[in-house]
Design a protein that fits this description.
Its cofactor is Zn(2+); Fe(3+). It is an enzyme of class 3 (hydrolase). Belongs to the metallo-dependent hydrolases superfamily. HutI family. It catalyses: 4-imidazolone-5-propanoate + H2O = N-formimidoyl-L-glutamate. The protein is α/β, with parallel strands linked by helices and 412 residues long. The protein folds into two domains: 103 residues, Roll (Urease, subunit C, domain 1), CATH 2.30.40; 293 residues, TIM Barrel, CATH 3.20.20. It has 14 helices and 18 strands. The longest helix is centred in the first third of the chain and has 17 residues. It is globular. The two termini are 25 Å apart. The protein binds N-(iminomethyl)-L-glutamic acid. N-(iminomethyl)-L-glutamic acid binds next to α2.
């Protein structure tokens, strides 16, 4: 017999399902949610709530989907405090710092990498994250990238191959491109659901990025792009052209880039497409690198599908706090609270291809959709110690997440 749990007396419920509630976010007041096993079984007015084996009184507080963090780099060792201090003293971020973490990661044992990942995943959970992507990219040899993917698969909900992070120190760029599109990709492919490339000056240029995206697609793998982080460049246009799931960073976008992202979801320059490219903004990274904030307001206004992610990594964004990212997107990037909450939940799910039932997790299990509070969806929820999601931006810096359920199990 599958046990049921009723979360009752919810003051404000964000469903992200406009058939269930009003406004952006499909909000309901005085609501209840029934969980049956790993899934949501019923959502509606508290006055009509069905009976359940167990009942939790939310005492008028806000309930919403757990955060879906679609961009992290959590398999690493060491930190880069000195680099951060230098940056805060005026130095610019450069991709070359990645090699510092590559050296520390290669020198670490499996147990050290797993323990560090567990620490970071635990921090993220306590802050309301229930679904998390993480990338390889600090190994950059065949053996170290395979090891990173294996470690990631023990705890992440999606694993992305980022062998094309930088060309490792002392390696010939042409030989490395052959490796990353050949032997390394073949070795990692069974362990990952997508391939990513850092398309930027100091990392991979347009021709190299094209080759990586085309090789990945030929092997049936989804793609993502790190684009337009350090300057204007081809990353966004390449991601849209190749039908990548997302392009992430986006501090330096032209109006044409924004139009391409918006157009990727409908009648754009390439005609009607079934699925577009999500524009993923990384507010904590923009702040930590003192780079321009991604134009999230313009992207939403243009009709792009926007996700917010933490980009947790030791170089550019050493935080997994999605609450902080949501507050920053509201206070600094001009999104409304409802837009930011949607981008950090359903937006992330779309960027990961997890907004529909049947996505496969790294352990090979088919999973229900995430990012919504709707019958049939995975019961991934967070209860705030606040009456409304508005408090996430109204009370910046406060940890408001009080309880978290992942697949129906209370984890915080
Ligand atoms: O997403 N931009 C490339 N990769 C990471 C930074 C990695 C690092 O500096 O260690 C990012 O910001």
């Amino acid at each position: 017999m599958v046990r049921t749990l009723l979360i009752d007396n919810i003051g404000e419920l964000t469903t992200n399902d406009e058939t269930l509630g009003s406004g952006l976010g499909g909000r309901l007041a005085d609501a209840a949610v029934l969980i049956e096993g790993e899934r949501i079984a019923w959502v509606g007015p508290a006055a009509q709530a069905p009976a359940a084996d167990e009942r939790i009184d939310a005492e008028g507080r806000a309930l919403l989907p757990g955060w879906v963090d679609s961009h992290t780099h959590m398999v690493f060792a060491g930190d880069r405090t000195a680099e951060f201090e230098a940056r805060m003293a005026g130095e610019a971020y450069a991709a070359g710092g990645i090699n510092v973490t590559v050296n520390a990661t290669r020198a670490a044992s499996d147990a050290e990498l797993e323990a560090n990942l567990a620490r970071l995943v635990g921090e993220a959970r306590r802050d309301g994250t229930t679904t998390m992507e993480t990338k390889t990219g600090y190994g950059l040899t065949v053996a170290d990238e395979v090891r990173s993917a294996r470690v990631a698969a023990t705890q992440a909900d999606a694993v992305t191959f980022l062998g094309a992070h930088v060309v490792p120190a002392g390696v010939d760029p042409a030989a490395y491109l052959d490796l990353v599109t050949g032997k390394m990709l073949d070795a990692v492919a069974p362990l990952v659901s997508a391939v990513d490339v850092f398309c930027e000056s100091g990392a991979f240029d347009e021709a190299q990025t094209r080759r990586i995206l085309e090789t990945a697609a030929a092997k049936g793998l989804a793609t993502r792009v790190h684009g337009n982080q350090l300057g204007h460049g081809p990353g966004t246009q390449l991601a849209v052209e190749h039908g990548s799931l997302s392009v992430d960073h986006l501090g330096f976008l032209t109006d044409d880039d924004i139009a391409a992202l918006a157009g990727s979801w409908g009648e754009g320059s390439r005609g009607t497409v079934a699925r577009g490219t999500v524009a993923t903004v990384l507010p904590a990274c923009d702040l930590s690198t003192r780079m321009p904030l991604a134009p999230a307001r313009k992207l939403v206004d243009a009709g792009a599908v926007v996700a917010i992610a933490s980009n947790c990594n030791p170089g550019t964004s050493y935080t997994s706090s999605m609450g902080f990212c949501v507050a920053t997107a509201v206070l600094q990037m001009g999104l409304t609270v409802q837009e930011a909450v949607r981008a950090a939940t359903l937006g992330g799910a779309i960027a990961l291809g997890m907004h529909e039932d049947g996505w496969i997790d790294p352990r090979g299990a088919a999973q229900p959709r995430v990012g919504v509070v709707s019958p049939g969806a995975r019961a991934d929820l967070q209860l705030l110690n606040a009456p409304s999601v508005t408090h996430l931006a109204y009370r910046p810096g406060m940890r408001l997440t009080e309880a978290v359920w992942k697949a129906g199990t209370r984890v915080v």
